[in-house]
Amino acid sequence: MQARIAFTVLCAVLAGCAQQPQNAQEFRQAVPGAFMGKVQTFEAKRPLAAVAKTFQARAPECLNVSVRTVSQSSTSYQNILTVYKATVVNNPQKAELHLQRDFKSGVLVPGKVPPGGLYYVVADATPIDKSRTRIDIYGPSVGTDTLVRAINGWATGENLGCPDMTKS
Amino acid sequence: MRAALAALVVLFGGCSSLKPYPSVAPENVVVKSALESGSILSSMRGSVHIHELDASCHSSYVGTVKLDRPSVALGLPAERASYLVFAFDGASFLGGTSSSTSAGTVLKPRAGFRYEFAVTYKDNIYNVVLRESDPRRGASREVPRQELRGCSA
Prior knowledge:
The complex is a heterodimer. Helices cover 29% and strands 37% of the residues of chain A. Chain A has helices spanning 2-14, 24-30, 48-63, 145-156; strands at residues 37-44, 66-72, 77-91, 94-105, 118-127, 133-140, 162-163. In chain A, helix 3 (48-63) crosses helix 4. Chain A is globular and about 55 Å long. In chain B, a hairpin with a 4-residue loop joins strand 8 (125-134) and strand 9 (139-143). Chain B has a single domain (2-150), classed as Immunoglobulin-like, CATH 2.60.40. The longest helix of chain B is centred in the N-terminal third of the chain and has 15 residues, at 2-16.
């Protein structure tokens, strides 16, 4: 995880992101053109209301977590505390899941950190028709596999488990 | 170096403060677990840390049950709130990396009822599902996890 965190911060610096996205919309705009940014899209065969309900139920429970990661070798010791904050915004036309992360120790972050932490992943659910929903996930292209699978599971209703955020 | 050593002492000191959860009758809770690390180069261990809650929802650590068998039974005091923290502790054999994630829930068992936790960890996704059953009526229902923040012991 330390490598991923360092990599994420390095990417932000190299991409000229010293001005960090301060809200979800800025994050959406920044990701497609960012170095190692990625937008993933998939379809859930459930209506938007069902997807939104699952986001509302699972995201706070699963994603409002603190993760402490300890790594040690004969020459080094790292102790990183990361606090994640999930926000779900639902309206009749769209459901949004915002995930921010705040490094409380062990990581130096360049630029201004928005309240709640750096935007890490934003997932938008919009209706395709009455029974299908499109999911767009904005985030880094590496290190979010588990998180994306979990969001996919919530959207489809096939797996309501929580992602192990020590692996994200 | 001193800071690292101090942190290590605290880390390992914290581990040694764990103690087995005492046997409480009746055994009204069963924890069924299926945990997979997903790699031969890493391990995943599960455990439940049990805290008792007072009327103000202040927690007091009582003990820990290791989830080292597919099914583990334990007893929680009926009509009293307990806070159960399911911990998933991963360790990588390469690089000396360890990590821990957890999910907690408040449970106030009703007298005469039985509770079953289904705990899974697979492909880095975990789930803790609680069901309450009434052996007298044969009825059961899923109980949502209750966070400590919303506690009303």
